[in-house]
Amino acid sequence: MVLLAADWTTISSLATAAGTLVLAVATFSAVRSSNRSARIAEAALQEQRRPLLAPSRLEDPKQKIMFLEGHWVDASGGRAAVEHLDGVVYLAISLRNIGSGIAVCQGWAVRPGRNTSLNYPIHAPIEEFHLQSRDLYVPAGDIGMWQGALRNPDDPIRAQVVDSIESGEPITIELLYSDQVGRQRTISRFGLTPAQDTWLAGLNRHWYLDWQGPRSESLTLAAAEAVLRDHQAATERRAATESERTATDSSGQADADGGSTRP
């Protein structure tokens, strides 16, 4: 009887331990599933509020933009305004928000020249961005604008941008913006290219600062290197073809000259 009582005690303890283990596994699974659902819900909410800026369409209306000095510029659809007047560089871009949330401009950075994923694979450091003094909101699915000016005469970037404007070279603008609550910070790189009497605005890259994506830097750099290799191969092929054509023309001319020569 004593042995039987000891066995029932052991069995009871084992059953309790097994029940506790099953309950722990069920709790762990429930918590894990809950966390996964919360992450999915958060991602869905983020996408509902995510802004994404791009150049406006060419058919979008012209926008009149005024600066601190009372100077006005025009930014037509798909274009930018770039002016150097009285030592001040005025910059503006006609934008369209192709995202689903309101875009709030936070800052901007400018570089002379055409910046690509090869020569500038990453955006400018955050500490180099100029803070946006004016509240600029671009509604979802609609047009808006960005504006900035370089006024400091001792700013080396201002002098370089002035040289680019006067020589008709491209300019690169990087815009830092967020959603309407200051989150989902995004940097978009725009290229401004002079075309006769206007500047065309193009889009190069996007970076999400608070969320992974949209593409890893390694994939972007690999794609840029592949394009560069194809470009070099095409250039070499054209050069070889041109060299063969020149050699053929020279040989034909020599034959013609030799055939026309009489002793």
Structure description:
By secondary structure, the protein is an alpha+beta fold. The chain has three domains: 1-49; 53-210, Immunoglobulin-like; 216-241. 40% of the residues lie in helices and 30% in strands. It contains three helices and twelve strands. A hairpin with a 7-residue loop joins strand 10 (171-178) and strand 11 (186-195). The longest helix is centred in the N-terminal third of the chain and has 48 residues, at 2-49. It is flat, with a radius of gyration of 31 Å.
Secondary-structure topology with pairs:
Blueprint lengths: L1 H48 L3 E3 L7 E4 L5 E4 L3 E7 L2 E10 L5 E10 L17 E2 L5 E2 L4 E8 L5 H12 L3 E8 L7 E10 L2 E11 L8 H44 L3
Summarize the structure.
It contains three helices and twelve strands. With 263 residues, the protein is of the alpha+beta class. It folds into three domains: 1-49; 53-210, Immunoglobulin-like (Sandwich), CATH 2.60.40; 216-241.
Helix fraction, binned, reads 25-40%
Mean pLDDT score: 85
The fraction of residues in strands falls at 25-35%
Low-pLDDT stretches:
none
Individual helix count? 3
The coarse overall form would be: flat
Alpha-carbon distance between the termini? 138 Å
Structural class: alpha+beta
CATH level 3 topology of the largest domain:
Immunoglobulin-like
SSE string, helices as H and strands as E: HEEEEEEEEEHEEEH
CATH architecture of the largest domain: Sandwich
Q: Tell me the domain tally.
A: 3
Number of strands: 12
State the CATH class of the largest domain.
Mainly Beta
Spatial extent as radius of gyration: 31 Å
Instruction: Let me know the largest β-sheet.
Output: 10 strands, antiparallel
